[in-house]
Amino acid sequence: MKTVKAKKKLGQHFLNDLNIAKKIANTLQYDTYSKVLEIGPGMGVLTQYLPHSTGKIHLIEIDSESIVYLKNKYPLLEQNIIEGDFLKYDLNSIFGDSPFAIIGNFPYNISTQIVFKTIEHRDQIPFFSGMFQKEVAERICETPGTKKYGILSVLAQLFYTATYEFTVPPEVFSPPPKVDSGVLTLRRKENYNLACNEKILFKIVKMSFQQRRKTLRNSLKTLQLPVNLTEDSIFDKRPEKLSGNDFIGLTQKIEDGKISS
After folding, report:
1. CA–CA distance, 138 with 97 (Å, rounded to integer)
2. Is 108's pLDDT higher than 60?
3. DSSP 3-state assignment of 240?
4. Average pLDDT over residues 220-244
5. Domains of the chain (ranges plus CATH)?
6. Non-local CB neighbours of 39 within 8 Å, separated by 6+ positions
């Protein structure tokens, strides 16, 4: 009971349905990687369906009581169980330069930050599978032109193909959350190098959606873009109308205007 309370403080909910755990584990394909990092394994419900051969799987968990439990339950993995915060951890210290996949039933309160860190390390992470609050999972996979489409949708889909896999009801968790959950996968695109300055692109995407009701001409006003540039018809649009490729094109136009990053 103590462990459940500790994890609840972190925004975590224990998955009790073994069929769903197995279904999540089965999203892993091992085609471009052989190593896996599970984030927040808790009591190891998902862990049991992952490969336990030496060096293949590592677990990272912030709760010390869960660490003790995991080491007792999975003695073969003891050397690969890390007590730490994924968001602060140096991932190169785990697998070196080797590619690896990420999987997990993520705490709702840090799930988007986990995606942003994955994007940051995209050169090493070709595949990602995780359970989120359903609304967040849908947002990441959303297409242009909808209210859910936003910063995370654009940035994740610039580098990965996002697929909403299935919905998970609250009653299969302990304690049950107040909302549905959703499992998604991110498969890195074959060509994920962008034809623009990524730092400027990220800045433009974030600025645009911070005032998503405004046209780009107004939301990007603080960039002090040349008047002849903002006369382009793309600046008449609101950010949710732009695809990732549209944002790349916009960034290229702004780069040509010599806007500082």
Report:
1. 31
2. yes
3. helix
4. 93
5. 2-188 (3.40.50.150), 198-256 (1.10.8.100)
6. 60, 86, 102, 103, 104, 106, 114, 130
